[in-house]
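TICKET: design request
STATUS: open
ATTACHED STRUCTURE:
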């Protein structure tokens, strides 16, 4: 029964995802993102039978401004899965936003290792003059350890989608972090094993054998005038140097390029080259977990987050220029007494431009300027 329920949830979310991307691609005023990764974690010295999942989804739409947030943290047994979403919409559907986070984790058969995936995705659409929307989603899995001399391996497969190629402020981020503590001194520190950031690029893997794990991977620029992808893989305790991949292009031409460490032999574009339509990249990243002597591995935090759309305006910023000033005050005064839905001067969205809207502008006067 549990397997059937998990399968049903997967079908529902997959259908929603397909609708999200189809709509985003069909409407020029929509922006969308998706951050997904597969992982396998094998650790010696760590005994765990559950994971912590932290999620944050926020959807904003305006005018008038509406923001809804769904955030939380919970402990889940292994195996488990969950999905959390939130939406926001203005009157007459002038602006719509949706954001979701989800995860799945299970044992690797015959081992004490775990495998799974987690994902953050969202869409923001603005369809009317002076309307706007923003979607933010974050998904982080936390594996508790609390043991000294912990060691092992994390296998990581990232995938990022930027549907509109960096427009509307789309940002994707995908890190893996070790949380360490020194019992003798009480000192704590974070050790970043992997960090991937992108805008205007998609990082895609292809699953040719149908096992839900990628077999090849490529980076593709979006349909925009510029973008970047930046990846850092930490050096191991046994030696070697930090490995980096970086590419930035403007107007179709590569303006920054770097491939160092274990990525030095990749076929990587040079500064001045036209940005290729497709660049082959590693599909799986092996991230050794090697805790320094005297330190304790408290947690492994694996996360992904994305954002699309514009920044929600300051309350009282009637014209949406980022500054609450004379222009906003005059707009409310000239519209005073008007009724109806979707009026930008109706700051609180109650259907009438009145004293409440005027006071909102006055109390926010000067903000953002």
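STATUS: resolved
RESOLUTION: sequence designed for all positions
ATTACHED SEQUENCE:
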């Amino acid at each position: 029964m549990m397997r059937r329920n998990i399968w049903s949830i997967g079908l529902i979310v997959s259908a929603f995802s397909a609708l999200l991307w189809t709509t985003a691609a069909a409407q020029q005023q929509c922006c969308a993102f998706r951050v997904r990764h597969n992982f396998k974690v094998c650790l010696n010295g760590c005994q765990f039978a559950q994971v912590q999942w932290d999620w944050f989804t926020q959807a904003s739409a305006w005018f008038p401004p509406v923001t809804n947030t769904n955030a939380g943290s919970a402990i889940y047994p292994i195996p488990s899965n969950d999905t959390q979403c939130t939406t926001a919409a203005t009157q007459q559907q002038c602006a719509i936003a949706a954001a979701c986070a989800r995860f799945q984790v299970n044992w690797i058969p015959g081992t004490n290792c775990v495998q799974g995936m987690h994902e953050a995705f969202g869409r923001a659409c603005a369809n009317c003059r002076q309307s706007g929307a923003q979607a933010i989603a974050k998904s982080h899995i936390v594996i508790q350890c609390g043991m000294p001399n912990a060691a092992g391996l994390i296998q990581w497969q990232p995938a990022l989608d930027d549907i509109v190629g960096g427009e509307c402020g789309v940002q994707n981020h995908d890190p893996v972090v070790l949380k360490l503590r020194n019992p003798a001194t009480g000192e704590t520190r974070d050790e970043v094993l992997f960090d991937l950031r992108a805008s205007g690029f998609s990082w895609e893997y292809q699953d040719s054998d149908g096992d839900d794990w990628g077999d090849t991977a490529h980076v593709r620029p979006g349909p925009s005038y510029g973008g970047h992808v930046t990846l850092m893989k930490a050096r191991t305790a046994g030696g070697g140097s930090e490995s980096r991949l970086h590419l930035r292009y403007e107007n179709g031409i590569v303006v920054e390029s770097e491939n160092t460490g274990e990525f030095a032999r990749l076929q990587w574009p040079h500064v001045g080259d036209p940005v290729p339509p497709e660049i082959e990249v590693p599909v799986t990243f092996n991230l050794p977990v090697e805790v320094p002597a005297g330190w304790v591995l408290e947690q492994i935090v694996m996360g992904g987050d994305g954002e699309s759309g514009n920044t929600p305006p300051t309350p009282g910023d009637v014209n949406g220029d980022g500054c609450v000033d004379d222009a906003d005050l005059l707009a409310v005064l000239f519209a005073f007494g008007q009724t109806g839905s979707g009026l930008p001067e109706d700051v609180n969205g109650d259907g009438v431009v009145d004293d409440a809207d005027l006071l909102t502008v006055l109390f926010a006067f000067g903000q953002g300027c």
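CLOSING REMARK: Residues 2-26 form the longest helix (25 residues). The mean pLDDT is 86.
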